[in-house]
């Protein structure tokens, strides 16, 4: 049996090193999030500012989110690293409260500008699959989505979206070319 990374490697043939270039710059981000992804019935919303910059000439990038949720301050960040051998990205989420999450979501973009990145997690004591989905073009910006699968990918529960609105168009134009008691605390 192949690991998830081996299966992704077999289907990922294009060089995706520049796939996150669309994200560089400053953004206003509208978050919509489920309070409990297992229950799936109560959403809350908040806004953050985000800044994204490249690392190592595009072989990685880092972002930072700062804002207010209904329950208080929100700070978070993502470190994204590209592996030229596998042609896959590894996405590491972090918060000041939890530090760096060492289980990355791994994946790649397709030619249509949609990227899927997966990890195995534990939520409320149950094994799940976690999927991050990036849409390079969404409305006037781009979109990130997080979904959980409690049945190994048979069905997905969308539980967090971030809609990015361009806060400094000039930067993008110049660079785009070249929940308490839960064990999945990484998500807070």
Q: TL;DR?
A:
The protein has 188 residues and is mainly beta. The protein has a single domain (4-187), classed as Lipocalin, CATH 2.40.128.
Relative helix content = under 10%
Main beta sheet: 10 strands, antiparallel, barrel
Considering the protein shown, what is the CATH homologous superfamily?
Answer: Calycin beta-barrel core domain
Shape: globular
Structural class: mainly beta
Indicate the multimeric state.
single chain
Report the sheet-strand fraction.
over 45%
In the CATH scheme, what's the topology name? Lipocalin
Cα distance spanning the termini: 33 Å
Please name the defining characteristics of this protein.
disordered C terminus; 188 residues; mainly beta; ten-stranded antiparallel β-barrel; 2 helices; 54% strand; Lipocalin
Please characterize this protein's 3D structure.
This protein is mainly β and 188 residues long. The chain has one domain (4-187): Beta Barrel (Lipocalin), CATH 2.40.128. The chain has helices at 4-11, 169-175; strands spanning 25-34, 43-55, 60-69, 72-83, 88-95, 99-100, 105-109, 114-123, 126-138, 141-149, 157-166. The longest helix has 8 residues, at 4-11. The chain is globular. The termini are far apart.
List the helices and strands and how they pair.
Elements lengths: L3 H8 L13 E10 L8 E13 L4 E10 L2 E12 L4 E8 L3 E2 L4 E5 L4 E10 L2 E13 L2 E9 L7 E10 L2 H7 L13
Antiparallel strand pairs: 1-2, 1-11, 2-3, 3-4, 4-5, 5-6, 5-7, 7-8, 8-9, 9-10, 10-11
């Amino acid at each position: 049996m192949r690991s998830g990374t081996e299966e992704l490697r077999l289907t990922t043939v294009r060089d995706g090193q520049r796939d996150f270039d669309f994200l560089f710059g400053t953004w206003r981000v509208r978050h919509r999030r489920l309070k409990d992804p297992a229950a799936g019935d109560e959403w809350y919303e908040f806004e953050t500012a985000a800044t994204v910059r490249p690392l190592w000439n595009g072989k990685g990038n880092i972002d930072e989110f700062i804002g207010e949720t209904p329950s208080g301050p929100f700070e978070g960040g993502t470190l994204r690293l590209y592996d030229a051998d596998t042609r896959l990205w590894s996405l590491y989420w972090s918060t000041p409260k939890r530090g760096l999450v060492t289980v990355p979501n791994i994946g790649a973009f397709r030619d249509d500008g949609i990227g899927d990145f997966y990890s195995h997690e534990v939520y409320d004591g149950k094994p799940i699959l976690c999927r991050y989905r990036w849409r390079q073009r969404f409305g006037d910006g781009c979109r990130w989505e997080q979904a959980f699968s409690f049945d190994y990918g048979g069905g997905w529960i969308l539980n967090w979206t971030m809609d990015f609105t361009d806060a400094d168009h000039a930067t993008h134009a110049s660079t785009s070319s070249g929940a308490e008691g839960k064990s999945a605390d990484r998500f807070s």
